[in-house]
Amino acid sequence: MVRHVTQTFPCKLLYSWATFKSGDIGNHFKRMSKIVTVFGADKCQGKAVATALLQDGDFTVRAVVQELNSPTTQELQTAGAHPLLIDFNNPDSISATLCGAHKCFVITHTDFNNKDPLRAEIQQGHRIADMCKQHNLRQIVLSGAHHVHRKYSLPARHMDAKACINDYMNELGLPKTEIIVPFYFESFLTTFKPNPVGKNSYKIAIPMGEAAMDGISINQIGPIVTTLLKDPQRWIGKSCFLSAGRLKIQEYAQILTHHLHPKQFKDSRISVREFVEFFRGPGAQDLGNMFEFWKRGGQKMNYALTLELYPELQQFQQWVSANSTLLRTALDNDQAVLTD
What we know:
The chain is α/β, with parallel strands linked by helices. The chain is built from 15 helices and 13 strands.
């Protein structure tokens, strides 16, 4: 049976650990080195980073979560991470997750149901940045984004917020490495799952036209961030534009067709306007503008650099081959199998 231990520290840390007695935690901390705080560890990208750091074995991982009893939190704890609860609206709570840490991975999340998601996410990022400065972290890896609205006057709040957070971290002079990620391959399992239009017939409703779209697997982001954290002298001050390859939507469809026979996939050739009407939801226009930004050549991702950071990088064809059962299950059950 897992026994949860709650102990109060000067840094106001709240832990849920099964591996230490209450009186031993403080002494254990003194012996630790290479402590990495991973924000958003209960979300997809943060979980990938925390998992890769644990597998590397060189780091003590603090998994910052918003629910201690979630399956993801329990999975990370079993793997050796130390879960910490956080209230992003409370600077003291953020400070507690960074007390004594050497490095951190930062990703913020957009809540399109918030009345002002752009401002809310920027405020969250600024609070994290301020606490990183206060605790004198040696390296921060930030999952950032491009300024879509600034460049093309197209609001994409989930990207614009992250770009503003990156700017603020630069203003503070933080020892930061930025990563910018493209389309997730896993999105074909969830948000952009192909739509059934007949028996074993599907269309992909992504409004890229004839423009190619960069992509990568979420799980490969973890080893990439691990590489960046293990070589701070080389990577601090740099932005890394990640990609496992560029394909047109019809090429994504052809690869899916090849590996998931007898299922057939095609590009729906949907416009951004049609996408927004079809997708609906509070973030539909933001996502449509993201694709428009990519379509106009705003990605500028770097496959060669990504391959250097992770030589075992999987391109889409390899990813589909390795995940064909998962894809078939998602399509057959018509339900998401991965959430963020």
